[in-house]
Design goal:
InterPro entries: 4-hydroxybenzoyl-CoA_TE (IPR050563), HotDog_dom_sf (IPR029069), YbgC/YbaW (IPR006684). This is 4-hydroxybenzoyl-CoA thioesterase. GO terms for molecular function: fatty acyl-CoA hydrolase activity. 23% of the residues lie in helices and 39% in strands. With 131 residues, the chain is α+β, with helices and mostly antiparallel strands. The protein has one domain: Thiol Ester Dehydrase, Chain A. Strands 1, 2, 3, 4, 5 and 6 form a six-stranded antiparallel beta sheet that branches. The N and C termini lie close together (8 Å).
Length: 131
Amino acid sequence: MSEVSELPFSVRDYECDLQGVVNNSVYLNYLEHARHVFLKEQQIDFAALSKAGINLVVIRAELDYKGSLTSGDSFIVRTRFTRKSRLKFLFIQDIIREGDEKVLLSAEVTGTAVNSQGKPFMPEELANLLE
């Protein structure tokens, strides 16, 4: 498994629903942004891969909501990356509120890469991270 990445965030008012908490769909955006930053930290450019005909795709996302963020909360998204199978990789992610360090969400996001013909494969760039 590669290094753990931690990315800080703050909740913006418009991300909250009528109940005053972050809408459940917004957490997916936080997780996705953290995955892209993680890849960039590992010198993997998501956009450059796409231009080269290599598309990284999410094929499954499992999220366990354990609490709620509210407007103004500061939090981090912790991301780890590992191999799930020969052609699949796994991002293990947690959203942790700063201050009390409470884990508010745990996620496992499974992905794969597909080539320009839509066939799954493991690009060398990712395989090197998984060694």
